[in-house]
Every structure is written in C-alpha cells, then in structure tokens.
C-alpha cells in the first residue's frame, strides 16, 4: 500500500533515492522495482534487518531491473551519514509527526538532496487525525507516538522555510480512516473487537484483490476523509551569475555577499 503517488512523483531508473524512516520498506521496495539506487534508512534495527532480507529476496527473484541497487541501514534522521547533494529523490512517509525537531529533519533532507531534486512528504491528515486523538489518548500518548497534528498550510510553510518549492498535494487512504476511528473507539490494542476485525478483513481484501468498486470509493472519499496528506516539492537550483553580468572590478563586498 503506497502513500506516494508515483504518477505525480516521477522516478527514473538510476535515480538515487533515500527512503527516510523507511519502516517496513514499502516505498523503498517500489523504488527498487522501478530501477532506482535505493537507500532505506531507519533508526529501528529490527525493521532494517527485515527490509534488508526483502531486498535480497527481490534481487534473487529478479524483481529489480539491471542496474538497480538497494541498501538498508540504521541512521539518525537528524544527522544523516551522507554528503551534501547525495540524492536525486527523498521520501519521508508518516515520520515527521513522530519527531520533535521536524525543522531539523527538513534541513537534513534538503542538505542531502541535490539542486533540482524532488522530495515527497506524507503525514497524517489534520481532520481524521483529530478524530483519533479525541477518541483515544492511547493512540498518541505512547513512546515514539504522534506528537503533533499538521495542518496542510503549516507543513507546506515549513517546507518552504527549509528552501523547498512545493508543486503538488493530495490525500490518500480514505478507507483507512474509519478503521483507525474504530481502533481508537474500541481500544488501539484491541484487535478482537468485532467491528475492528470485520473492517480489517475489508482492508485486506481491498489490498489483495484491488477491486474497482473500492478504488473508485477511495478516490471519491480521499478529498473528504483521506487518512494521509501528501506534499511534493523540488529543491530549486541556485542562481548562476555569468561573467558578463558582474565583473570582478565592479562587484562590491555587499553584492558579493548577496550573490553567495
């Protein structure tokens, strides 16, 4: 189940991709299938071991095109172990709502993204998330849980402040909002409640069978109750100053500082 829409976020074979906070690896696997050179990074060692196993299984099964590479590694989102401009694409999905220093994470992503590169950010949507918080304290008051609820304009503003240029947004996973409302209402750790079990079966059937009816229903409901908010942005190129625009003789100290 992908949150990033790759029809809106094009990926070319050979692109250097960082899936930051990759979790179980769903976006990293899709990028690998599309021929990218993928680094899946997360602070959870157990999940990284599982992602590495899946990468190896995909390679063995021939699921990745020739030239595609995949690496799974532990790392800190606030101190990425990569040089500046290391990646063409950065994805961070359902992660920023967990991190106190979200501006620091954005700064690190921008640092490792090359000028002209693309970034996809997904977070829980404000409305459905507010319902979850209202129904259950246990949903968010846990170690490593959600510490904030983003409004769309707030997230886009922080992305712009970090130096990114947003170019598109949408909502995703409308069918999952009622599931989480049920989980919160009956207890986030209570998977045996009949309404929760029944709705979970519906979601599994939808994911496995991909029927047209649920696809159309989700498309219609996404603008209303989509569980995730997705934003796409680029890192602008720095302006180039040609030699015939400014000469060394006329470039003052103040203008030189501005040019930098």
Range of helix content? 25-40%
Structural class: alpha/beta
- pLDDT below 50 for ≥5 consecutive residues: which ranges? 241-260
Largest sheet: 7 strands, mixed
Secondary-structure element order, N to C = EHEHEEHEHHEHHHEH
The number of distinct helices, counting runs of at least 4 residues, comes to 9
What is the terminal separation in angstroms? 43 Å
Radius of gyration: 21 Å
- Average pLDDT for all residues: 91
Overall outline: globular
According to DSSP, the number of beta strands is: 7
Q: Report the sheet-strand fraction.
A: 15-25%
Strands in their spatial order, largest beta sheet: 3-2-1-4-5-7-6
Molecular structure report:
- The chain has 260 residues and is α/β, with parallel strands linked by helices.
- The protein has 9 helices and 7 strands, in the order E-H-E-H-E-E-H-E-H-H-E-H-H-H-E-H.
- It has a 7-stranded mixed β-sheet, sandwiched between helices.
- Helix 4 packs parallel to helix 6 and helix 6 (176-186) packs antiparallel against helix 7.
- The model is unreliable at 241-260 (pLDDT under 50).
């Amino acid at each position: 189940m992908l949150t990033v829409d790759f029809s809106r976020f094009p990926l070319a074979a050979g692109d250097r991709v960082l899936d930051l906070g990759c979790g179980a690896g769903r976006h990293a696997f899709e990028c690998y299938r599309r021929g990218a050179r993928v680094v899946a990074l997360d602070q959870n060692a157990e999940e990284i071991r599982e992602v590495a196993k899946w990468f190896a299984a995909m390679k063995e099964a021939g699921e990745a095109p020739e030239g595609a590479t995949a690496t799974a590694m532990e790392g800190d989102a606030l101190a990425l172990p990569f040089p500046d401009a290391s990646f063409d694409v950065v994805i961070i999905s359902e992660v920023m709502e967990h991190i106190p220093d979200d501006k620091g994470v954005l700064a690190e992503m921008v640092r490792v993204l090359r000028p002209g590169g693309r970034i996809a950010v997904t977070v829980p949507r404000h409305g459905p998330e507010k319902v979850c918080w209202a129904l259950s304290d246990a949903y968010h008051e846990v170690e490593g849980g959600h510490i904030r609820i983003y409004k769309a304009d707030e997230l886009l503003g922080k992305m712009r402040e970090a130096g990114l240029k947003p170019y598109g947004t949408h909502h995703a996973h409308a069918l999952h909002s009622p599931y989480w409302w049920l989980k919160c209402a009956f207890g986030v750790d209570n998977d045996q409640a009949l309404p929760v079990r029944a709705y979970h079966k519906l979601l599994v059937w939808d994911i496995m069978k991909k029927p047209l009816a649920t696809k159309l229903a989700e498309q219609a409901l996404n603008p209303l109750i989509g569980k995730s908010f997705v934003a796409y942005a680029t890192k602008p190129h720095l302006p180039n100053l040609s030699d015939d625009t400014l000469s060394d003789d006329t470039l003052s100290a103040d203008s030189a500082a501005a040019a930098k």
